[in-house]
Specification:
Helices cover 22% and strands 40% of the residues. The chain has 314 residues and is an alpha+beta fold. The strands form three sheets. Strands 1, 2, 3, 4, 5, 6 and 7 form a seven-stranded mixed beta sheet that branches. The chain has a seven-stranded antiparallel beta sheet with strand order 8-16-11-14-15-10-9, with no helix packed on it. The radius of gyration is 28 Å and the shape is elongated. The termini are far apart.
């Protein structure tokens, strides 16, 4: 090989070195939900909002002195809870209740002289981060070095109906994030420890779960209850905050008989029977404590047995 050929080869290597860069790859962008169903495609204002609370999101990976863990051994669990709560709130289809920092809220309410009880949720989400892993690999060539960092996080969630304590849905999802740095003949990127990969992997795992959580929440029937009957006006739980509008009509069901399942030992409520239709006239109260004032449109209701009825969408 003559000097001219050697010079040409070195020029090509130098050119490739100049084009080297660091690339970062993560799962599907967090703002894009895969295979969105018709239920999720509905406009938020057309959906009666379920009241949802995230009970806990614990870190079960037992990573000891990892930088992800705070003095309470649960920083990544709090982060997962915050991400999931934010995604569900952004959908506009749910009313999210705070549970992880409930003690702080109670103290604040006492300082403000507010002693009213905590609002009950229709559904409770219980989750955990069950797996976490980091790896770094290097590919070394004659003139180059390629460093790849990868983070993996596995998240498990359970969706519980607070009225029956039944787990209505559970799922596991794994998120992955990686970054790659190329270094050729002293030119290119030198990548240090990339701490953002852990956050991206966790966010990617939560993103895989959000769509299915929302579908299962919305598949469960929305329901409300009678609280009182004053001057032929029936007061119903739930108000404007839950997406109810004036003149909306609802069906009233008489609760079905409860029977015991000998196989599980638990009680099952049989389907209710429609006995009346009501229409919303107005609202009282504010926020989650607002109520709907309704009137009877058809059928009949026993005022002495208001607890025996359920109110659902037509």
């Amino acid at each position: 090989m003559n000097i001219k050929q050697i010079f040409l080869v070195l020029s090509c290597i130098a050119l490739s070195a100049c084009t080297s860069s660091t690339r970062s790859t993560i799962n599907t962008p967090v703002n894009q939900l895969p295979q969105t169903s018709q239920i999720l495609a509905q406009a938020p204002e057309k959906s009666l909002k379920r009241i949802v609370a995230i009970s806990r999101f614990s870190d079960e990976t037992k990573r000891g002195n990892s930088f992800l863990v705070d003095k309470n051994n649960n920083r990544i669990g709090k982060q997962a809870s915050d991400i999931l709560s934010a995604r569900l709130t952004e959908s506009g289809k749910f009313l999210m209740l705070e549970r992880s920092d409930l003690a702080a809220l109670d103290n604040e309410n006492k300082l403000n002289g507010d002693t009213q009880s905590t609002v009950a949720a229709d559904f409770m989400i219980i989750g955990s981060v069950s797996e976490y892993g980091r790896s770094t690999t290097s590919e070394v060539g004659v003139f180059s070095r390629n460093k790849i960092q990868k983070a993996n996080v596995t998240v498990n969630i359970r969706l519980v109906n607070t009225k029956t304590s039944q787990v209505v849905y559970s799922e596991e999802a794994t998120g992955e994030a990686l970054s790659e740095a190329n270094h050729v003949l002293g030119v290119g990127e030198r990548a240090g420890y990339n701490t953002s990969l852990d956050d991206k992997a966790l966010s990617a795992a939560i993103s895989k779960l959000v769509s299915n959580i929302m579908e299962n929440l919305l598949d469960s029937p929305w329901q409300a209850y009678f609280l009182s009957n004053e001057d032929n006006q029936l007061f119903m739980s739930g108000g404007e905050e839950q997406g109810i509008n004036r003149n909306d009509k609802f069906q009233v069901l008489q609760k079905g008989k409860k029977i015991k399942n000998p196989q599980t030992g638990s009680f099952i409520e049989l389907p209710g029977k429609k006995v009346a239709t009501i229409q919303v006239l107005d609202f009282i109260g504010k926020g989650l404590n607002s109520l709907s004032i309704t009137e009877l449109v058809s059928g009949s209701i026993d005022d002495s047995k208001l607890n025996d009825y359920l109110i659902r969408e037509l």
